[in-house]
Amino acid sequence: MTERPLLLILSFSPIRSDPRVLKQVELFKDKYRLATCGYGAAPEGVEEHYALPEDAQGWASDKAALITRRYAKVYNGLSAVVAARRALPKARFDIILANDLNTLPLALELQPRLGVHSDLHEFAPREKDEDPKWRLFVAPYLRWLCRKYLPKAASVTTVSDGIAAQYSKDYGVDAGVVTNAAPYVEGEVHPVGEKIRLIHSAAGQRYRKIENFIEAMRTAPDWLTLDLIVMPNEPDYVAELRELAEGVPGVKLRDPVPYKELVRTLSEYDVSIVFLPPTNFNLRNALPNKFFEAVQARLGVIVGPSPAMVALVERYGFGGVTEDFSAAKLSETLHSLTPELVATWKKAADAAAVPLSAESQVRLWEEKIAHLAQKAPAAG
User: What is the pLDDT of residue 277?
Assistant: First the structure.
């Protein structure tokens, strides 16, 4: 009888509340002996958990070393790396699934018998490229990590085609794509009523420019309504949105709902507005959770000209695309809606719910890890 390989899922994040890493835990907990390393308590279903101190940092903060380009010193000084080195035994794990670039050097150093799979949640070298200081000091360090360590990973995945293509172009790695899709939900297509009900659910952060949605509704016909579910990330900004919405009859802010109830809540609506202003490379190429949650809720979507979202909207036919991210162009799109068009979008979302579900997307992780596991010799 062959003993199942020991797989470590490594992440400098609180795994119990990290949707992408939790999908990995759910996928592999019954297929491998599973260990995890991250902040907080162990996720359900793992055999071993190595908890990192809550104040351990996984991002570069040694300014002097960044300025003088002593990048090994920068990495070795990360408090999350220091803590993980103390906690994790070398040469014990068969496979390591390393989440994000900042865990990859550590994963390789731990010398797993069968190799390391790297799952990159962003295009790391351009994560904050709208910030000149970050571009000057941090980006070169991240490019160094990519050049030095990505070729040593046995396999690589990331979150969208655009980001995968950039990793291939800049570093020669063949990155597969596992999107941040939502789990499949059994659902039905609700008919469009007398009013077309729009919804936007998002973190309350100023860079998202949620005020543009309210402005777009100022001239909207009375058969359109917009509800906003906005998390209080930046309370002052959310308060400004509430005040702005009071002057627009068709708009209201509703209280946030628990994540487990979000898809059911969204299904009360007809169309989800999914905009991410392209303030940096990763946002331009993003496929956010809310896009996939709308599909599982069997909603149509209205997206801005974000390439990854546009490609899926056009492929499956469940929404419309605005010319740009302005309130004026969104308003034009809203005025063009009809109950018949929205009903067509909702039926198309229903047809896309299975192929765009997490269960379909995570198969690539399963294949990559299985490929490494196949290198294990049979037990004598």
Answer: 87
